[in-house]
# Entry
Amino acid sequence: MKFNRANLFTNIKDYLFIILGLLLYGFGFTAFILPHEIVIGGLSGVGTLVYFATNGLIPVAATQYACNLLLLAFAFKLVGKTFVMRTIFGATVISLSIGIFEAIFMRLNHPLIPDVSMSAILGAILCGIGVGLCFVHNGSSGGTDIVAAMVSKVSNVSIGRTMIFTDMTIVALSIFLPYEGDVQQRIEARVPLIVYGWVITFIVAYMTDMVINTNRQATQFIIFSTKWAEIADQINTEAHRGVTVMDGEGWYTKHPVKILMVWCRKIESVTIFRIVKSVDENAFITQANVNGVYGKGFDTMKIKMKK
# Structure
């Protein structure tokens, strides 16, 4: 088999970003969420339930890793060897990350940020960015991803719906954590934390989507101009982007026109506008955001074909 240096570099980069993302998740969770005794979704939430139910005897990381391995054992036949191997790597890294930071931040006498709201929001943002980085580079942290993958194989329930239902149930179970007081005092103390847990779960999901979509976002231009050839040449030479020239017809004038179609990164949009304006100030331009532009000069389709 021929050695492919480009693929090797891509794989190394992917694994480095997966590790970075999961370290970021571990830091955000243990530094800003766990010290306030907030239970979130996923196996991190299950680990938190066990941690506080045992008064800190069983670490979050230990429960999380054990549950991941147990779920993968059940899921092996359904989801396949590739998914299992990739998830074992992610589950190992995230458990190590949480274990290391848990030992540091849970020994402090007080949370880094005393205000619960600000601490929860900051922790959720960091966790969401971390998970997003992991997903962008084809990683998986396990947890409810495994449950969702199994359910999608045997039913028509969507993965997103399964994950939301599972995560909200895990958060709600924190109402049963040990508490010294009557039922009313338990409800008054736990319900606000349950609400924080639900809010954090949705912020993490939102930030994850933001990271994934921002990474894939590109801009599409459609340009109408009588100086189309000059514009196309300058886009090629100055912006280093390809241009597709199409034939069209103005239905009102019944005159033939040339239409330029250009795709570029979002940060290159200003360059395209400047080129068009410098050549033809009267050019007609439409701009649209597109997700998932794949091919030469853009992203690579990272999917495995069925044998």
Observations:
- The CA atoms of residues 76 and 83 lie 8 Å apart.
- The mean pLDDT is 85.
- The beta strands are 217-224, 244-250, 255-265, 284-291.
- The two ends are 18 Å apart (CA to CA).
